[in-house]
Amino acid sequence: xxxxxxxxxxxxxxxxxxxxxxxxxxxxxIHAAKEMIRETGSTGLSMRALAxxxxxxxxxxxxxxxxxxxxxxxxxxxxxxxxxxxxxxxTGDPVDHILAVVDLGVDYYLSDPAFYTTLWREVxxxxxxxxxxxxxxxxxxxxxxxVEDIAAAGLxxxxxxxxxxxxxxxxxxxxxxxxxxxxxxxxxSLGPTIKLGYALILxxxxxxxxxxxxxxxxxxxxxxxxxxxxxxxxxx
Length: 236
Prior knowledge:
About 80% of the residues lie in helices and about 0% in strands. By secondary structure, it is an all-alpha fold. The protein folds into two domains: about 5-75, Arc Repressor Mutant, subunit A; about 80-235, Tetracycline Repressor, domain 2. The radius of gyration is 23 Å and the shape is globular. It starts with a helix and ends with a helix. The model has no long low-confidence stretch (mean pLDDT about 85).
């Protein structure tokens, strides 16, 4: 190893440790923020309490994130697990694909309901950083791609605009999520209710050759929702 290379290696070591330490503090703050959101039912975090929970100085959250809102957005950006599970949900049929992604999203929300009901209450607050973080152009393009795959497979009637179709699917999704957040819909009915709505909307937009298959999906989704409602009734 040359002397110049050795100097670079020696200089890089402290910098590497500093970056690792910074990343560790960042992870601790995000973890603490998620715990506090879950416990308090609010995204209105106290930065002092957050720093204490994460075991860092009061200045550290500001230095690493800049603001309380940025901390909340950083929590929402932690989607690597969702992306990994989405990769496993890929299927050949574009309708099965979009319904599988619905299942994936619902599973994600139900894995931590106290946390996600809090975030969705913020979405329904009309304005704010949480709403814009969940409903953003990147998210819209992702879901539009799923709808365009259905159109490209010839499963939609001529004249059906994929963007308008996505908007109707979004309206249905949000109305169901509102019922869940309000406590009017139980957890076991959440996924089946969303999927039945999607199947009904897609069936209404289906081409002649795709209608029979989509009608079958409507029947399957309806049967699953009825079963979920029976299970809920037995549990009560």
